[in-house]
């Protein structure tokens, strides 16, 4: 009888463990699905305002500015490949539409790290008049870049330049900050570690989905 009781108790514990594991797996699956549903909502909200080239935008349309978002520097202080492509596309868009300025927004967190200055120099080197370039060194994040364009500089209608995977979040934030924004993708080449960036971007979309409510 004691052996049967011990066997019963052992089985009961086993099934409790199994039930806990099932609940944990179910919650993990629900969270996984929720992340992708939220990402789909963010993308669906703004996807019709993302363009592949400057030519897809009416040249006669007026904008307060073209915003180029920062994307890191090389060890020598020059723009990374991703940032270089954003500047090239931003300059092309700026020359195509009727916009007052091109805003270089990025991280200027130290004496030896200054994204906006590097962006300005690159743009000037390819022919943009210095008077047409505005820099914001407090664009430490996508949210801050967009929010400051509205709240500090007073820009209400803008074109945002970044890679497509990043544009969804940028335009979603713009919507929530009351900025009339469209985006042009700056995907001019393949980029290293892009899969990792896109996974992190999905999580960032979830973060700002809740932060911007």
Itemize the secondary structure elements and their pairings:
Layout: H1 2-46, E1 50-51, E2 62-69, H2 81-96, E3 98-105, H3 115-125, E4 133-136, H4 142-151, E5 157-162, H5 164-176, E6 180-185, H6 194-211
Parallel strand pairs: 1-6, 2-3, 2-5, 3-4, 5-6
Can you tell me about this structure?
The protein is of the alpha/beta class and 213 residues long. Helices cover 53% and strands 16% of the residues. The protein is built from 6 helices and 6 strands, in the order αββαβαβαβαβα. The chain has helices at residues 2-46, 81-96, 115-125, 142-151, 164-176, 194-211; strands at residues 50-51, 62-69, 98-105, 133-136, 157-162, 180-185. Strands 1-6-5-2-3-4 form a 6-stranded parallel sheet, sandwiched between helices. Helix 3 (115-125) links the parallel strand 3 and strand 4. Helix 5 (164-176) runs parallel beside helix 6. The N and C termini lie far apart (62 Å).
What would a concise description of this structure say?
This protein has 213 residues and is an alpha/beta fold.
Q: What integer value in Å does the Rg equal?
A: 23 Å
Shape label: elongated
Poorly predicted regions are none
**Overall number of strands:** 6
Head-to-tail CA distance between termini: 62 Å
The spatial strand order of the largest sheet comes to: 1-6-5-2-3-4
- Helix-strand makeup class: alpha/beta
Q: Could you give a short account of the major beta sheet?
A: 6 strands, parallel
Q: Count the DSSP helices.
A: 6
**Series of secondary-structure elements, N-terminal to C-terminal:** HEEHEHEHEHEH
Helix share of residues?
40-55%
Beta content comes to 15-25%
What is the mean predicted local confidence, pLDDT?
89
């Amino acid at each position: 009888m004691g052996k049967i009781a011990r066997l019963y108790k052992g089985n009961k514990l086993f099934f409790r463990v199994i039930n806990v594991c099932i609940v944990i797996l179910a919650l993990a699956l629900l969270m996984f699905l929720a992340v992708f549903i939220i990402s789909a909502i963010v993308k669906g909200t703004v996807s019709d305002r993302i363009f592949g080239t400057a030519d897809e935008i009416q040249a006669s349309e007026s904008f307060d500015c073209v915003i180029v978002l920062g994307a890191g520097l090389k060890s020598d202080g020059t723009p990374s490949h991703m940032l270089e492509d954003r500047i090239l596309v931003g300059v092309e868009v700026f020359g195509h539409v009727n916009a007052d300025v091109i805003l270089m927004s990025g991280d200027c967190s130290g004496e030896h790290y200054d994204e906006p200055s590097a962006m300005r120099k690159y743009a000037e080197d390819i022919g943009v008049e210095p008077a047409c370039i505005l820099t914001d060194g407090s664009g430490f994040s996508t949210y801050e870049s967009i929010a400051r364009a509205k709240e500090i500089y007073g820009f209400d209608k803008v074109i945002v330049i970044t890679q497509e995977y990043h544009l969804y979040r940028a335009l979603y934030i713009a919507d929530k900050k009351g900025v009339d924004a469209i985006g042009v993708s700056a995907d001019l080449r393949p980029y290293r570690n892009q899969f990792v960036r896109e996974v992190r971007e999905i999580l960032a979309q979830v973060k700002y989905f809740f932060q911007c409510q």
